[in-house]
Amino acid sequence: MPAQQALPWDMPQPEALAELDTSQIKLDETSLAGEYLEKYSQKGGGADKTFGIREEKGKYFMGRKRVIIDKDSNLFVDGKRYEGTQDLWELIVKNKPETGVCDDNDVINYKKIIKRTGAMINLKNPQKPAGHSQGYKWVNFMQPIWEKHLQEQKQ
Q1: What's the average model confidence in pLDDT over 70-92?
Q2: Strands 59-62 and 54-56
Q3: Is the dihedral angle over the CA atoms 125, 131, 133, 139 positive or is it negative?
Q4: What is the DSSP secondary-structure string of 99-141?
Q5: What's the gap between Cα 79 and its chain centre?
Q6: Which residues pair with 59 in a beta bridge?
Q7: pLDDT at 55 over 80
C-alpha cells in the first residue's frame, strides 16, 4: 500500500509562524480580523463561504491552504505575509465587497492569495472553478482570475 501523501494544510509552517497564537483572533471582535471573521457566524452577514476563509478545528483555511492570522490581522499563506488592511479583509470575507475605495495593492494581494491558496479551484475537479456562478464576486473578481489561471495552464 503506497504511503499517504501529505495534504497542503498538513505541511509544516515556517517556525516563526507556527508559534503565532491565532486562537484568540476569532474571539477578539475588536481586531480587524475578528470583526470580519465574525461575519461568518452572522446569518445574512454577507460572508463569502465559497472563496473566503473557513475554520476547521480551530485553524483557518482558504482553498487548499492554511491561513495564519497574527494579532495585527495580517495573513500568512505558505510563509508569505499579506498586510491585513481593511480593504483586503473586505475582499476576502464579503460576498459583495465595497471596492470603491479599495487600494490597487489590496486587489493585487487578494488575487495573489486566491491564486496561492487555490481558493477558486474546485477541490473535486481542478478543471472547474469552485463556485461558478453569476454572482457579483464571481463576475467582478473571480472570473478574470480564473480565466488568467486557465491561460497560464495552457502555456
Answers
A1: 93
A2: antiparallel
A3: negative
A4: -TT--HHHHHHHHHHHHHHTTTB-SS-TTSBTT--SSHHIIII
A5: 14
A6: 56
A7: yes
